[in-house]
Amino acid sequence: MFNLKVNKSHFSAVAAATRHATTTTTHGTHYQYLQNSKLPTFYFQRSLPRLPIPLLEKTCERFLASVQPILTPDEHRVTQQVVEEFRQGIGMELHAKLKQRDAANKHTSYISQPWFDMYLTDRAPLPLNYNPLLVMRGDPRPEYQPQVTRATNLIISSLRFWRSLQANNLEPEVYHMNPKKTDTDNYRRWMAVAPKAFATYASYAFKAFPLDMSQYSRLFGTSRIPRLGKDELVQSPESKHILVMRRGNMYAMNVLDTSGYIESPSVILGRLKSILETDSQREPAKVPLGVLTTSQRDEWAQTREHLISNPMNADLLQREVDAALFCLCLDSEEDGLFNEADPVPMLKHQLAGKATNRWFDKSISLLISADGVTALNFEHSWGDGVAVLRYFNEIYRDMLRQPFVSEATPHTPAQGDSTNVRPLDFEIDDRTKAAVEAAYAKNATIVDSLDMNYLQYRQLNKGTCKQHGLSPDSIIQLSFQLAYRQAFERYVGTYESCSTSAFRHGRTETMRPCTMATKDFCEAVLQPAQKQLTAGELRAMIDRCSRIHGQLTKEAAMGQGFDRHLFALRHTAQLEGLPQPALFETEAYKRINYNIISTSTLGTDTVVAGSFGPVVKDGFGVGYSIQNDFAGAIVTSYKNQAEGKKFIESLESAFDQICAIIERSSRAVRVEQTN
């Protein structure tokens, strides 16, 4: 999970076309655009199906099944009665109103606006609570790893992605069941002649599933603006600059010319170098305004209003910061360097850190340490993982395939070019200074209270899962359940996010990995030795867990979970001014939504680590992945609230036990076949 290097076979495949920037015509299509798709970017958008509203009866059934393992039998019986009253009474009324509202808004999904509102009305600080972290795999070539070199190439690749998106040239996002057969020119030719109104359904015939791309427009030029009660997303898609931060000092740097073309590599490199040179002659920011973006949102809204009461500050903040295409944070050596033997300090710093060199309100922020380690921190309200991972993957692969500058590339000097490189010098009064100091102290206290533990487990990987016919995600989620049960002797609300981007304006649905099947397996494993089932019987239980896990995942992806439906029904009651139904006051509803174990998987080889904060004070934030040579997890928790080290040690034990069961059962099958 923390090996930042690229293996040689992967690199040779990706970077076969590597070439130097001096051979590139900067205004040519090849430099200006990442892709030139045969199909327009939003080709499938019009024909995407709408997110279905599940049947009320099915939602009630799924809710009862999901809460059963975390309730006592008596609690479950009480819950069944309340759910039945809801289904036959107020639930029917709310469901009808939700359907009516959905029918009147066919351009979107029933969950889209309530989900935006949920994010934007929450007053909690963004770091740890919402903004996640993705750490990028490194570059194996030393000449491309230095900070300013890596930053320049990432800026150019990001702009190539953005320009392709704006020109409708970016490949549509399509999930191919069998990429070798369908991710082909032949597939694209067939799609190009399909009637646009039915293009999605034509694609289904190839077992290729187009995904919603409505969130992509907010990747760049977007900021979350703090307001009292509810924040606001503002977009500036025509911007030509980025925000660069260095030791808390802020700079606006033009990256597109007056005609909107990407500046040449030597120009971008020169402007970045001028920032580093200028900053080396300055003190670190005495009042680092970025710290304010870690504040409770109403507090930040009030501070911001005061800050922009000064017209010059208002102009700088709105024109240069809010409107920037994205944020680039160039950390210094004082912020720490990556240590593979102990990656936690760097990960904690990039996830939330001391925040003097961050602007958490930007849609995306590229973080680059002094030794070139790169990560992405993104504000979550505008979109979900599908859009972010697509961007992340594309810029990484583009940077490997065709880097535009190296350590030896000459640059165009930009010292004194105040038109294209602009230090942002705000006028700071005592009230703003006091707010920054208070925000810094609060964030430091929170970050100091954050505990982070990690595990790399090499006996479980993609190869072993394939060899034994196992579902990787199911096995890891089952391991989380066993780990928690044997460490803390109970079962708790567990969250796994599942994308519903197969539908127009889909967001996410919750998959609930804690089931009666996983509970039965955990109890069987933890029986005394004399009562233990055979390895074959336990393997059969693992297979049952996997089947149920797979079915729940499929239902969630198809918009047939229960969490978002109940969320929307509750939201409808609020909109209609109706009393909150009793279902939402039950212990079952509260317990299933108190996500002690909140999980997110990182299914791409460009991400070497990912992390986010716990969603409840006594819970765990679990970023996990299963790769070619290991399974890994990073677990965050709050000190004196949850025992992260105990959980990670129990997780290793759970992996051991499950792998042993699989190996024993396989050995027994081989012996039986031999006989």
UniProtKB/TrEMBL annotation:
Keywords: Acyltransferase, Fatty acid metabolism, Lipid metabolism, Transferase, Transport
InterPro entries the UniProt entry points to: Carn_acyl_trans, Carn_acyl_trans_N, CAT-like_dom_sf, Cho/carn_acyl_trans, Cho/carn_acyl_trans_2
Listed transmembrane segments: none
Lineage: Eukaryota, Metazoa, Ecdysozoa, Arthropoda, Hexapoda
Molecular function via GO: carnitine O-palmitoyltransferase activity
Protein name: Choline/carnitine acyltransferase domain-containing protein
Pfam family, one: Carn_acyltransf
Listed GO CC annotations: mitochondrion
UniProt pathway: Lipid metabolism; fatty acid beta-oxidation
Organism encoding this protein: Drosophila navojoa (Fruit fly)
Active site, UniProt feature: 380
Record-annotated Choline/carnitine acyltransferase domain positions: 51-652
